[in-house]
Amino acid sequence: MEINEVKQQILNNNLDPWYIFYGEENGVIRAYLDKMSEVTGRTINFADSIIDVVNKPTSKAFITIPKLYVVMDDKEFQTNDKMWDKIDKAIKDDIVIFWYTSCDARLKFWKNFKVRAVEFKRLDDRILRKHIKLKLPLSDKACDELIDATEGNWGRIQLELDKVKSYDEQAGDKVLYKLLDDKTIQSNPHDAIFDFVDAVLARDVDLAYELLAESESSGESNMVLISVLYNKFRDLLQVQTGAKDSRLNGWQQKNVRDYIDNYSNGELIHALRILRKCEFGIKTGRISENIVVHYF
């Protein structure tokens, strides 16, 4: 099911008895749940499993008020195909959202309920800018900085916008940049990895160690750092030596061209050998992953 179909059903207040929501954009999922609750007049109730919903206690002395149930990662329902044909009758007057934090399209469950499953993908930057400006008057450049820092996750963007509002709602751009500079708004750790590798290629020791500490504090795997370091040193060696059999595209070449001649060819080859030694050391237990990048 496409997300626009759900949106239209909400606008018409004509919802299906149940849905399956999944995807990386939790903030948008939450917004859809709130809107469903609003148009139907049902309160949102979280449940551990569909069994808790269909077996909820009832009393003849009181009127039963239909609710909007959200069932998080119900693995039992996902694997018990005998329940699938009974779900429509079991739900009755409630609306149920099965919210899964991951999707494995190979499983029978996802193949069977393809028409029920709604994927909430990352929003386009243009749409994110529009929603950001509805909450805070930021420039396009400031919006893009915030989108980049949060990996375009609408849930995270809303939390960071609240920080800006709390500090000074009127000085939007200025406050945003201040909070980004002092790390009150955390930048994308993935960016710190590539900034760290670039600092190593630039032989900027102080900046490299600063960014390495930032990557470590975000819980980034040292094996990932070793892998990115290897790829960048390899690319630099190919560009620096003008290797004719290089398969690097224009973008890959551009990313390392500024670092040509910071290292001799011999140093680059030595670095690649050490990185291979580090990778092998981690896999065999000869080098602790906690120290491997510092060792390199």
Give a description of the structure.
This protein is globular. The chain has 16 helices and 5 strands. α9 packs across α10 (172-181) and α11 runs antiparallel to α12 (205-217). It has 296 residues and is α/β, with parallel strands linked by helices. α3 links the parallel β2 (44-47) and β3.
β-strand number: 5
Beta-strand content estimate:
5-15%
**Overall morphology:** globular
Mean pLDDT: 85
Q: Work out the oligomeric state of the chains in this entry.
A: single chain
Unreliable residue stretches: none
Q: What is the helix tally?
A: 16
Query: H/E series, N to C?
Result: HEHEHEHHEHEHHHHHHHHHH
How helical, in percent, are the residues? 55-70%
In the sheet with the most strands, the strands line up as 2-3-4-1-5
Beginning-to-end CA distance, first to last residue: 49 Å
> How does the major sheet shape up?
5 strands, parallel
Structural class: alpha/beta
User: What is the radius of gyration?
Assistant: 25 Å
Tell me the layout of helices and strands.
Elements: H1 3-11, E1 18-22, H2 26-40, E2 44-47, H3 50-54, E3 68-72, H4 75-79, H5 87-91, E4 95-100, H6 108-112, E5 117-119, H7 125-135, H8 140-149, H9 154-168, H10 172-181, H11 189-201, H12 205-217, H13 222-241, H14 250-257, H15 265-284, H16 292-295
Parallel strand pairs: 1-4, 1-5, 2-3, 3-4
Helix pairs in contact: 7-8, 9-10, 11-12, 11-13, 13-14, 13-15
Give a concise summary:
Helix content is 57%, strand content 8%. By secondary structure, the chain is an alpha/beta fold.
